[in-house]
Amino acid sequence: MIRISLILSSILCCLTLSANQDLPTFGDSTSGIISLEQERRLGQQFLRSIRAQAPTLDDPVLQDFLEHLIYRLASHSQLEDRRLDIVIIRNGSLNAFAAPGGIVGVHHGLFRYAQTEHEMSAILSHELAHLSQRHFARRVAEGKKSAAINIAGLLAGVILAATAGGDAALAALTGSSGLAQNQSLKYSREREAEADRIGIYTLDEASMDPRAMAYMFERLQRASRYSTGNNIPEFLRTHPVTNDRVADSYNQTQNYPKKQFPANLDYQLMRVRARVITSGNQPQEIKHFEAAFKESRNTIQKTANQYGLVISLTNTLAFDKARTHIRELREQHPLNIPFRIAEAAIYTSAQQPEIALDLLEEALEVSPNNYPLSATYAQALLTARKPHAALEVLTNLSVERPNDEYVWFLLAEAYGLANDIPGVHEARAEFFVLNANYDQAIKQLGYALPLVRHNFQQTARIKQRLEDIWMMKDGG
After folding, report:
1. Who's near 385: CB < 8 A, 6+ residues apart?
2. Tens digit of pLDDT for each residue in 385-403?
3. What is the pLDDT of residues 91-106, one digit of tens each?
4. Do the Cβ atoms of 371 and 401 come closer than 8 Å?
5. Is residue 30 part of a domain?
6. Whose CA is closest to 272, among 218, 334, 372, 339?
7. Which residues span the domain enclosing 84?
8. Could you tell me the pTM of the whole model?
9. Sign of the torsion formed by the C-alpha atoms of 98, 99, 100 and 103
10. Which of 23, 39, 21 is nearest to 80 (CA)?
11. Residues 311 and 276: beta-carbon distance below 8 Å
């Protein structure tokens, strides 16, 4: 945990400066303590530290789904600064969190617990409310230096929850309270209620079910009723659910008209995908989805279970069976992007990338610049040993998504296959920066410099980037 200590020292330094400097106002009383831009810088530091410590799930399909869902909610929220970064943590527990500066983290286990996209959105809208009401800055304003210590402990707790989890995270969250523990608990209850209220309003504004907040809280209560210690859902450690809180959530929706919200196929596909790609036992998953497919009670369940079966069969190299099932799905849903990607994955895994490329090119004509299609297309190009074509796709993605570590990972591979060694080092440097490994990033650019000494523009660009990374390392 040495790196956590170093990162928290940097965060504490940032917070201490924030509490002692005159800052520009942004229309609220908290701006004199910490500005939106300072929150943004702190958030980027925190995001890099999360990636350094927690196992992240780099899946363009899930990432794209979550980004669209969260941006839909954000557009109907009270967020003033809607620059958001979403990170998926490879952790099966029920948890989501929001950090200052627009960082939203989601454990893949949330897909398992949230039965509908409305329940998922209830948790996400609650977290967005914490951001829109600037609860972080308000806590700093109320507690000054003692609150800075509490927030540092809170951020450490989130990191530990994603890595060690359980009692270690709880100790970090409670042990850091120090001077303001009782006051902090009071503020926490008030702000949880505020986040619930604003989250419910956001759900309704986004044409989602406002009662989903209460439904999810009831589900959390049931999940934790017989749980103790490490088995308590992680979300409940920082968001306690009481009978009063459930009742309040229902009471706040009394004036909303009751509507029927049909099941959403896209969300059910994502639930299945999250389960399959994080499972360590694919043969067992095949048995599960074969049985679930036969026993499905409705069309959406049947389609989702068949999709899970396709991915599991592909992962175990049972390509013929996978092709049979994906053809059925594609006939029923010819424009469905996850199905097209699943079909392409069969041929890429079977070392038939040219067929995969044809499928993906056809889909990109209908949905140009689609992120998961483009990323999958780049992967297929790499498998087909067409690195220069992959570079074109990935370079565009790196401009559109500069904070996407998966894009930089693929870009380094593409440069390597294209025998562009300076490009390899530059792409690796960006990947290491996004994972708070500044020493390795500096080394990579140091390797690149002598290779481009005859190119003034490249040399100047690399030197400037080195200066930027040194500033990040020093906490700037």
Report:
1. 417
2. 999 999 999 999 999 999 9
3. 998 888 888 788 899 9
4. yes
5. yes
6. 339
7. 2-251
8. 0.84
9. negative
10. 39
11. yes
